[in-house]
Write a structure and sequence with these properties.
By secondary structure, this protein is of the alpha/beta class. The chain has 26 helices and 28 strands.
């Protein structure tokens, strides 16, 4: 019997927990603590504890599939790759789009965007950060010069006050939630703002029960009170910021006085006052947010407002402070760092900059890189559905947009306008079922590489298993395709370490990181510009990453969601996650332990609303929006605000995204998952009528045939 313990990094949320994958006779049999892991010190949440269970699922993809006569049938790698290469040669650059993935390694993501730009010559490369944190990248970059989490997970314990808004941290990022609870144990005040009384709310010292989509009004109200009482950090504002007066002019309007903000948000005025005073009087204070802030048509404004509050109170560049966006998937940060966005190369250098383009052409040994930014995935789906997009060929790596994108009926329509769809994944996902070619890829346990957590921590993935059947690593598939298209020399890598070495030349923030350095001390936080640099746990300690080194206040006005309740659709729908499942359920619903805890979705509604509708707890109901409808069990609970309903988005049989709105933030192009209008209907039982007495036709009575 061969038994080994392989230290690696969790494939689920962006916390970046480490564990030992237990391998017995070539199969993953369990998870054991890795006490040296820098983020979690051996502790794990439910998903991490059972992260081995999906690996050997019977429906793992093990051979390429090619569509023949309308059916996906098994094919050889030679046939599948030759078919793809032959088809790719028939399209022009503007007819391609590529989707990378926040679930795969930095090395895989780096090569996917390189393949898109250097081989296909298309700028149309994007990934699911567009759906979760593109507003963070845009918003924080505008304020601080960097779109990343400013502080470290560990130094949350040093906070005196932690303000959590739009993040159910204890369910979505449990090991970060643990740090919050440790801070509370040491005396920190915990403030929580959300439309639902989540497990995080129940652990908070102060719960602000707000309506979804009122974040800017709430944040402006807190700042109004702080300035009105003279509690702003004037020294920090004077030395390290600009544009303060413009911001002050907006937030000091009567519209953002606490009585008015209370009317907009539904939060009692006294609670708003307490929150403002706790934040202003506690040094250091930290702010945590996630997709409850970002997934709005005003997502960028929401993000800028969180930054305003921390600038106002001088809580940046210090341990226990900062603006801390929590990434939802294991490698959202890394995929963005690698340049899997349509407007930036690796390291966030602008596609439109000629000097940057020349440097990338030199590094990659190619010419003719795209000169203009490409199309975002959300815009692409809209244009495809309307028949106005030039894109005819889509190459997808590890994305399941047939469950994760808004307006799923529109996404289905968009796919009908494609001539050729290639999907590489570990399972036949809802998206892969539409493909012309499906390529079997490896999961986290079957390849080496790196991923970058929400706190900018670059960590190793370590190969523990051989892939099932004929599955191949994503990076190897990309290299083989590049070779068939005439770019073999530019994609000839012996292994993942050599890809990472090229990454360090393309991404200045990773310049001092190497596989060797990631073995001891096992991780580094970027920026790490050279091999002697220790990494950067806290950003902006001396100056911001802006050209002049100053943090820039934003003058932000509150605006309601794109779609608000009315007589026909009287409820606000917001969506989110459950602690037992992750993203579109592709992995967790194939984990027996996790799936046995929560088998399907539900819609939460307040008892007052349920009573008006005559709906009982656990009764199956119909939820409808202007875009679709689903049938789903009701959960009647006082843990949600009256007039608001909540649906988790993991479950294909009652897909929340059949209902959600495709309205986009004008800057980040992120959809408004967190607020749209719906109605709820009882499903009336079908009456069973008595069968009518059978009568013979008149012709038969008359003796006719």
């Amino acid at each position: 019997m061969e038994l080994k313990y392989v230290p690696t990094t969790c494939p689920y949320c962006g916390t970046g927990c480490g564990f030992n994958l237990v391998v017995k006779d070539g199969r993953a049999t369990g998870i054991e603590p890795w006490h040296r892991a820098p983020v979690n010190s051996g502790k794990l949440c439910q998903k991490g504890r059972y992260a081995h269970e999906f690996i050997h699922s019977k429906d793992r993809l093990v051979k390429p599939l090619v569509r023949k006569n309308g059916q996906l049938v098994e094919a050889s790698w030679e046939e599948a790759l030759d078919l793809i290469a032959g088809k790719f040669m028939t399209f022009r650059p503007e007819e391609f789009a590529c989707l990378s993935s926040a679930k795969v390694s930095n090395e895989d993501n780096y090569l996917m965007q390189k393949f898109s730009r250097a081989v296909l010559k298309t700028p149309n490369i994007d990934h699911c950060a567009r759906l979760c944190h593109s507003s963070t990248v845009a918003g924080l970059a505008a304020v601080f010069g960097s779109g990343a989490m400013t502080n470290s997970i560990a130094d949350l314990e040093e906070s005196k006050c932690i303000f959590i808004i739009g993040s159910n941290t204890l369910e979505q990022h449990p090991l970060i939630g643990r740090r919050v609870m440790l801070a509370k144990k040491r005396g920190a005040k915990i403030i929580y703002a959300d439309p639902r009384r989540t497990p995080t709310a129940k652990q908070a010292d102060l719960y602000l029960s707000m309506y979804s989509g009122t974040d800017v009004a709430l944040l402006n109200g807190l700042m109004h009170h702080i300035i009105e009482k003279g509690r702003e950090d004037r020294e920090f504002i004077g030395k390290r910021t600009k544009n303060y007066e413009a911001m002050k002019t907006v937030v000091m309007q009567e519209a953002y006085s606490l009585p008015e903000v209370s009317k907009i948000t539904g939060v009692p005025e006294d609670n708003l006052k307490i929150a403002a005073e706790w934040i202003a009087s506690s040094k250091p204070s930290a702010l945590i947010y996630s997709m409850g802030i970002t997934q709005h048509t005003v997502g960028v404004d929401n993000v800028r407002s969180t930054a305003n509050l921390m600038l106002l109170t001088g809580n940046l560049g210090v341990p226990g402070g900062g603006v801390n966006p929590l990434r939802g998937q294991n490698n959202v940060q890394g995929a963005c760092d690698m340049g899997c966005l349509p407007d930036v190369y690796p390291g966030y250098r602008k596609v439109a900059d000629p000097e940057t383009r020349r440097k990338m052409e030199s590094l990659w040994g190619v010419s003719g890189l795209p000169e203009k930014p490409g199309t975002t995935v959300t815009e692409l789906m809209e244009e495809l559905a309307e028949g106005t997009s030039p894109v005819r060929c889509l190459y997808v790596m590890g994305e399941n947009f047939m469950l994760s994108d808004p307006e799923l009926n529109r996404v289905r329509k968009a796919l009908e306008h494609l001539d050729f769809l290639v999907v590489q994944d570990i399972f036949l996902s809802e998206t892969a079922k539409f493909a012309d070619v499906v390529l079997p890829a490896t999961c986290y346990a079957e390849e080496d590489g790196t991923q970058t957590s929400t706190e900018r921590r670059v960590q190793r993935l370590r190969k523990a298993l051989d892939p099932p059947g004929e599955a191949k690593a994503d990076w190897r598939i990309i290299c083989e395709l590049a070779g068939r298209l005439g770019y073999g020399p530019q994609f000839s890598y012996p292994g993942e370490a050599e890809i990472f070495e090229e990454i360090t030349k393309a991404v200045p923030q990773y310049g001092g990181i190497s596989y060797g350095r990631l073995e001891n001390p096992e991780s580094l936080q970027w920026p790490c510009p050279d091999r002697s640099h220790p990494g950067t746990p806290i950003l902006h300690t001396e100056k911001f990453a802006t050209p002049d080194g100053l943090g820039e206040f934003s003058a932000v006005e509150w605006a309601p969601p794109a779609e608000v309740p009315d007589a026909q659709y009287p409820f606000i729908l917001t969506t989110g996650r459950n602690i037992w499942h992750w993203h579109t359920g592709t992995m967790t619903r194939r984990s027996e332990t996790l799936d046995s805890e929560v088998r399907t979705g539900w819609v939460e509604l307040h008892p007052l609303d349920a009573e008006k509708l005559g709906i009982e707890n656990r009764e199956k109901v119909r939820v409808l929006s202007r875009r679709g409808e689903i049938e789903i069990p009701a959960m009647v609970t006082e843990d949600i605000k009256p007039g608001v309903v909540f649906i988790p988005f993991h479950f294909r049989e009652c897909a929340a995204n059949l209902l959600t709105s495709g309205a986009l933030d004008p800057v980040a192009k992120i959809p408004e998952y967190k607020a749209c209008a719906v109605r709820i209907e009882k499903i009336e039982p079908v009456e069973q009528k008595e069968p009518a007495e059978k009568k013979e036709p008149a012709e038969q009575k008359e003796g006719k045939p």
